[in-house]
Specification:
Elements: H1 2-24, H2 33-56, H3 63-83, H4 90-102, H5 104-122, H6 131-158, H7 162-198, E1 209-211, E2 218-221, E3 224-227, H8 229-257, H9 268-288, H10 291-294, H11 297-300, E4 305-307
Antiparallel strand pairs: 1-4, 2-3
Helix pairs in contact: 2-3, 2-9, 3-4, 3-5, 4-6, 5-6, 5-7, 5-8, 6-7, 7-8, 8-9
Length: about 350
Amino acid sequence: MLDLILPLISRADNATAAELEAEESQYGYTPTKYVCLILLVLFSISTLIHTAQAIRYRMLWPIPTILLAGLLEIAGWAGRFWSSFDDTKDSPFMLQIVTTIIGPTPFLAANFIIFGAIVRIMGQGYSRLSPRYYSIIFVSCDVISLVVQGAGGGIAASGNTLEDANMGGNIMLGGIVFQLVVMTLFLFLAAEFFYRFFTDSPIAGRAFARVETEDSHVTLTNSGYRLSRNMRLMLVALFFNTACLYIRAIYRTIELAGGWHGAIIETEIWFNIFDGAMVVLAFYAMNFAHPGRLLGRDAMNAKNTRTFGKPEQLEMGSTVPLVDSNRDQPFTAPNYYGGHY
């Protein structure tokens, strides 16, 4: 009889010990060592590659965007790896709270910059906003989101009471929701741009302009505009990593809305999949489809913008000809579009 009862008592004691450990844990669980280590290594490798690519293509804009995001993710996963040895310590927990919540935000700014370059190449006449405004408006909103999330994370991490932690969490939630709204607006404008491009429906009053580089990315054919292989690959990569970041933003919104002891925030696998995996996929998508290689340094640095006449006046089967230059100066648009750019 004792042989049957003792194992049951032992299992009950083990379950009780596990429950007590979970209650003492900052996370509600103990971060898995090998998962934290894998993601720490993956983010480190990707950030090193992005550094080399920024040097190779002589680009400065990845430094405050992609590289900053990489360093924040490395710090965040280093904190979680540290916690895997002792999940009751405050320092690693506070480190990962702040860095993983704000880490992808600078990376998102890179997407806005890249899309601005794509608009210059494919034709500003199809875009609701000029390429410069994509950077000015959306990157500014990204900075606001970064500051709000960082402030909330700092308050939550340093708070001495549950009330302080909840206040910080609500501030972070506001920053994430704001970021989600901005991303949704960006996706709407991007969808409109591609619809107008493929249906050849430029916005009235908007001049028709493109960037001409050594590798022309847009060719006019009898069936419409044909995109180069590099441009198609860049668009797929940009869509993919934006989708990853959008999914991650939705997850973090739901997670924070549930509170510090909600079922989602205390389930490690959801964080590993919908935060860690989504962000690391976005990083490597940009490594494999780097805009410096696919679009060219001139396009990314906003050089060599040219304006054109009516699309149907261009010779079929040829690349678009160069007419005017100097994108920063206003010019009179062709009568077909009317007005000034």
